[in-house]
Amino acid sequence: MMKYIKIAVVEDNDGDAKTLTDLLTGYERKTDNVKLSVKRFTNAVDFLEKYQPYDIVFMDIEMPMMSGMKACYKLREIDKNIVIIFVTNMEQFAVEGYLVSAFDFVVKPVAEYSFRLKMDRALDYISRFTGKSLAIKTPEGMRQIALQAIKYVDIMNYKLTYHTLDGDIEITTMKLQDVEPMLLGAGFFRCSRSLIVNMKYVKYVSETDMDLAGEILPISRRRKKDFMDALAEYFAGGGGNA
Which helix (H) or strand (E) holds 182? Predict the structure, then answer.
């Protein structure tokens, strides 16, 4: 089953950032059933201001404006689940890293073999804690989809669509109420009669709609309060278990 992993690289040095992204590209190429989505930030302030859920963050410790360590204290206030891997040339930061539940450290210059071992460990950890999947019957046969890869599910004109990180999957033989029991309790919420969303991808909420991974989706006024309560509980619990 394909694993979809969202990664942030927070690194002010262009050369070091390129080294990390090249290593991630090489890791994806050499690893079966892994698809990496990588976004680079040049400073921690920008990363926090534009934050959306990631599975892994590679955080440089020494940066202008805000240090990586300080940024991770703030990050843990909004995401208790993300895997933090510090990037540094000073190993003495390891002790403080435990205070923000850092998963690992990468010491510059980064060696490919060591990097691969750390990625293997991180993906194994993510799989054990976020590895739930959903079996979907399509015209081509059964298909397994990781719950974390589903952004939202909607139904229009009797056509149910799973909107995933890897594209849309249309089903004409199911109703939204058939899908709901499989998703609720796993970080999803039904926002209207025709829409169930993965709260992991909610970036902000306005009076009548939300930004979900860059798409603007409506919220039923009748369900708005329950949705906001569920969203607050989801993030307070560290991002759920989806």
Answer: helix 176-183
In angstroms, rounded to a whole number, what is the distance separating the alpha carbons of residues 226 and 234?
12
Q: Which of 49, 51, 81 is nearest to 65 (CA)?
A: 49
C-alpha triplet 96, 98, 100: angle, nearest 5° = 90
- For 35-51, write each residue's pLDDT tens digit: 899 999 999 999 999 88
Best CA proximity match to 160, nearest among 203, 194, 113: 194
CB 43 within 8 A of CB 32: no
CB 93 within 8 A of CB 204: no
Mean pLDDT of 214-222: 91
CA distance 234 to 198: 11
Question: Cis bond leading into 139, ω under 30°?
Answer: no
